[in-house]
């Protein structure tokens, strides 16, 4: 989501609400939403799938080297 915020010239937090709405709309239209949650690079802690923005720190090891969540929208099959 960071790249999307950068492209739009917005803050990550501002984009999260809009992204959450877009994902709800896509799901209502029959699309499948796949979320690979954020994960700590240091200890492997996996964040909740509901957290769409990149967390600041790992709650387990306090590390800041984190993988951002990855979100995919899959079109319904005809």
Report on the structure:
The protein is of the alpha+beta class and 78 residues long. It has helices at 2-8, 12-28, and strands spanning 32-36, 39-40, 66-67, 70-74. The longest helix is centred in the N-terminal third of the chain and has 17 residues, at 12-28. It is globular, with a radius of gyration of 14 Å.
As a percent range, the share of strand residues is 15-25%
Sequence of strands across the biggest β-sheet = 1-4
Mean pLDDT: 90
Report the total helices: 2
Topology:
Elements lengths: L1 H7 L3 H17 L3 E5 L2 E2 L25 E2 L2 E5 L4
Antiparallel strand pairs: 1-4, 2-3
Tags for this model:
78 residues, alpha+beta, two-stranded antiparallel sheet, 2 helices
């Amino acid at each position: 989501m960071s790249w999307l915020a950068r492209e739009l010239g917005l803050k990550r937090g501002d984009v999260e609400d809009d992204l959450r709405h877009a994902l709800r709309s896509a799901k209502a239209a029959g699309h499948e939403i796949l979320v690979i949650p954020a994960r700590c690079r240091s200890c492997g802690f996996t964040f909740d799938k509901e957290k769409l923005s990149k967390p600041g720190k790992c709650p387990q090891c306090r590390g800041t080297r984190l993988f951002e969540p990855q979100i995919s929208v899959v079109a319904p099959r005809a």
